[in-house]
Every structure is written in C-alpha cells, then in structure tokens.
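In the design runs reported in the main text, the only information available to the sequence generator was the tokenized backbone. The following block is the verbatim input for one such run; it is reproduced so that readers can re-run the procedure and compare outputs position by position.
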C-alpha cells in the first residue's frame, strides 16, 4: 500500500503541467468585509477569469473561532490564496486550521496551495466526489484553464487537493463553531456542498447561486439546483454568501432560483409544444428580462436553454 501511494503521488505530480516562474501577486486592493460576527468575505469581481482580474472572481471567506481560522473557497490560484492569508492577518494572528472547498471547479479551490504551504497540518474538507475528480485529473485541467484564460497570471499554482471528506449530515465542530454540511445530489455539479452556520445565521451557497452573475450549468442539474436553493432557504439563515456576487439576505438565493425555475419551466412548456431549443430561445427571452443585466447573461442564456432542454427531454423518457 505504501509503495502504491508513493507511486500515485509521484505520478500525480508529474501529471501536472510544467510550471512557469511564479506570476506576480494580485494588483488590485481587495478587502475582507465582515458579513456576520466573526465571518468575513472577500468579494471577487464579477466575470470570468482574465488577465485583468488575474483569475480572481470568486468569494473567498474566513471564519474566526477560538482554535483558529476556517477558510471557505480560497480562490483560483496561489496568488489568490496568498491574498486571502494577507487579509486574515489584518484581522487575527491565529493559524488557519481548516479549509472547505465547496465544489470541484478550480476557481474556488486552487488557492489551497497557499494555505497548505503556510499551514501544512491544515485539514482541507470537500465532498468525496470532488476529491475523486481531482485525483482523476480535474485539478490539472483547471490549472491549464486558469493559465490559458489569464494569460499566465496564475503561474506557479500547484494542485493541493482536499484531504478530509465530508458529506450530507457532517457536522464539523471547530473552536466552538459548528459547521453543518449540506449535500443533496447533483446541483451546480455533483460535488457541491453548502455550509450552514446556525449560530451565525449564515449559509455559504457555493456556486449553487450567483447573485448578479450567471453561472455555467454544464455540469449541473436545474431541478437539483432549484431543490438545493430551496433547502438553503429553509435553514432560516439570514446571511447568504453566493459563490459569485455580493453577500445578501435570502434574495441571494431566491433570485438565482427564480431564474433557473423560469428557464426550466419555460423550456418544459415549449418542449411539450414540440419546439426545439433554438426555437425556444426567442420566445423565452422576454420572460427572462428580470435578469438581463446580470453579468454573463448574454453569453450563457443560450447554453442554459439548451441544457434545460436536454434535462427536460431526459425526464420525459
């Protein structure tokens, strides 16, 4: 077993793209905002990874506990992870004792590297399916995606996967803070976890919701995503942290849920009228005007309709 593990880690290392010289730190001055007592979020810019944002566009967060700091989704690169650590140091000198990765998309977790290098004993939690996907090559793929989209601004980043699995019903207690893990099947992906902090009245939605920004649904399920957002709303949380966009109240979940529901229901109705996906789009767009000013609406609405069509079609058979 030891020989197998040694060979596995060597092969995993060799499978990663050859790393260029480490790219510079983030240029923009991002600040952590306290959204609840001891809960901070660094809101990234809206939009896809680019040379301009240096790949930073998610919402890393950190939680203060008696035993140390817990980080949620440390971002897309070692540079973003280092920025997160710098923001933590403005608030506390306690060590980082845990990290939670909400799903497999690398813009949320490749910053693990910076945390791990600073705190090698840190526990990094994720859903088992995410850990499996990373081992199967998703990490290396995301390294390349980020390098390509940012024109090398994430160079120097390495894959550091989660080391501790969590699943539906897991409750992780750290320094007097209970973190409840929610996972109800396929949603934005089949690896998503949401994190509910009952004592703080906070829930981290991951990419089950964007607020003011559309998200890709290529790996997801409309019905599952809607179900999970309804579940998040049923927790009684007051503060909702989306994967992208500003932290807010329940509207950070209801707005995206309503969009997904409108797309799905609209496609289902037109599907029953025997219309194809490209015929449905012009008919459905007027119903979606409420979200037309969201970032990436124009570039993603067509794919959302097509993907909803495939899901509706599959449900019919």
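Verbatim output:
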């Amino acid at each position: 077993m030891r020989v197998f593990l040694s060979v596995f880690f060597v092969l995993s290392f060799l499978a990663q793209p050859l790393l260029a010289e480490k790219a510079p730190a983030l240029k923009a001055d991002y600040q952590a905002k306290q959204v609840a007592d001891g809960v901070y979020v660094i809101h990234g810019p809206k939009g896809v990874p680019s040379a301009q944002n240096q790949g930073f566009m998610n919402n890393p967060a950190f939680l203060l506990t008696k035993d140390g700091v817990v980080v949620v989704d440390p971002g897309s690169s070692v540079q973003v992870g280092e920025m997160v650590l710098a923001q933590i140091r403005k608030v506390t000198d306690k060590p980082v004792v845990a990290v939670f990765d909400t799903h497999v998309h690398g813009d949320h977790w490749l910053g693990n590297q910076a945390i791990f290098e600073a705190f090698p004993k840190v526990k990094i939690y994720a859903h088992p399916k995410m850990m499996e996907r990373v081992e199967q090559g998703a990490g290396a793929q995301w390294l390349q995606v980020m390098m390509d989209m940012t024109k090398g601004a994430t160079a120097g980043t390495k894959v550091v996967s989660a080391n501790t699995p969590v699943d539906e019903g897991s409750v992780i207690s750290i320094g007097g803070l209970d973190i409840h893990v929610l996972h109800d099947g396929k949603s934005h992906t089949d690896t998503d976890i949401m994190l509910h902090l009952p004592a703080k009245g906070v829930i981290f939605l991951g990419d089950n919701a964007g607020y003011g920004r559309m998200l890709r649904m290529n790996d997801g399920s409309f019905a599952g995503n809607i179900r999970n957002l309804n579940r998040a709303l049923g927790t009684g949380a007051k503060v909702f942290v989306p994967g992208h966009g500003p932290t807010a109240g329940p509207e950070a979940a209801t707005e995206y849920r309503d969009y997904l529901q409108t797309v799905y229901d609209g496609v289902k109705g037109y599907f029953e009228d025997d219309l194809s996906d490209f015929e449905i789009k012009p008919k459905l767009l007027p119903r979606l005007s409420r979200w037309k000013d969201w970032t990436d609406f124009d570039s993603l609405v067509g794919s959302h309709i097509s993907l909803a069509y495939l899901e509706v079609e599959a449900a019919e058979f």
